[in-house]
């Protein structure tokens, strides 16, 4: 899979993604990354890529031409028009379903804005998806782009050493992951649940599923509405909710 990031800070992208899991995936060729410096496509002798907004107002706006020239260069050998993700707090909030959808693409282009934003005409010209990582404002789109690339990369075959890791982490079936424990058996008076030491895989699986349901209900009840639930899950949730109401 090929990731292309149109940015004013390519070093930030390169440094952030050439580490840990994504770094190993890049080294092994499971994913490919090109961090394209928009400033390289400026025709201004001082390499300016921004200007004052028409109509007045504070701050500067990124100009359309350097971005378009960078986009044109990146896409010139592609067989089809790629998805171009503009990172903006005005977009749809990124989630695991979106990551799974993006992971099926051969090429993804991320456009990272700065200053007061980007000229609307370039957005209309090239952008296919407007995506946010949350309802807050950052200084630029680089960090959100790296967050999304990390999440998408984990779903690319071969990137993770254990294929089950991607399938059964948080948000599998739209539920949060169950608690995890490792050695020692006891830490500061807190013990690993006995069921995990029992060696009974059926009981362990049942405990983990119930803990996943409980954690989701407590921390992200909004996810329950769209979770994939069995009849046993629904029965256990009903029991949990009854207990919560009785304790109020």
TrEMBL record:
Name the record gives this protein: tRNA (guanine-N(1)-)-methyltransferase
Any one GO biological process: tRNA N1-guanine methylation
Domain (tRNA methyltransferase TRMD/TRM10-type): residue spans on this chain: 1-225
GO CC term (a single one): cytosol
GO molecular function: tRNA (guanine(37)-N1)-methyltransferase activity
Binding locations of S-adenosyl-L-methionine: 113, 133-138
Biological function: Specifically methylates guanosine-37 in various tRNAs.
Main subcellular location: cytoplasm
Family indicated by similarity: Belongs to the RNA methyltransferase TrmD family.
Keyword Mitochondrion attached: no
Subcellular location: Cytoplasm
Keywords: Cytoplasm, Methyltransferase, S-adenosyl-L-methionine, Transferase, tRNA processing
Known catalytic reactions: guanosine(37) in tRNA + S-adenosyl-L-methionine = N(1)-methylguanosine(37) in tRNA + S-adenosyl-L-homocysteine + H(+)
Organism per entry: Anaerobutyricum hallii
Subunit architecture: Homodimer.
EC number of the protein: 2.1.1.228
């Amino acid at each position: 899979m090929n990731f292309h990031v149109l940015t004013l800070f390519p070093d930030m992208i390169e440094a952030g993604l050439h580490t840990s899991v994504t770094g190993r995936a890049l080294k092994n060729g499971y994913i490919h990354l090109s961090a394209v410096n928009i400033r390289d496509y400026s025709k201004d002798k001082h390499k300016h890529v921004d200007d004052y907004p028409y109509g007045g107002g504070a701050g500067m706006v990124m100009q359309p031409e350097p971005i378009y020239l960078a986009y044109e260069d990146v896409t010139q050998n592609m067989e089809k028009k790629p998805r171009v993700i503009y990172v903006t707090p005005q977009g749809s909030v990124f989630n695991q379903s979106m990551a799974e959808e993006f992971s099926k693409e051969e090429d993804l282009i991320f456009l990272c804005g700065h200053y007061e934003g980007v000229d609307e005409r370039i957005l209309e010209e090239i952008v296919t998806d407007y995506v946010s990582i949350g309802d807050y404002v950052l200084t630029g789109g680089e960090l959100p782009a790296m967050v999304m690339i990390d999440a998408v990369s984990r779903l690319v075959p071969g990137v993770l050493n254990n294929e089950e890791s991607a399938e059964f982490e948080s948000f599998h079936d739209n539920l949060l992951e169950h608690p995890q424990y490792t050695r020692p058996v006891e830490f500061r008076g807190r013990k690993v649940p006995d069921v995990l030491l029992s060696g009974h895989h059926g009981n362990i699986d049942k405990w983990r599923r119930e803990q996943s349901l409980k954690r989701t209900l407590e921390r992200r009840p909004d996810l329950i509405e769209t979770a994939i639930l069995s009849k046993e899950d629904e029965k256990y949730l009903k029991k949990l909710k009854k207990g919560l109401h009785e304790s109020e």
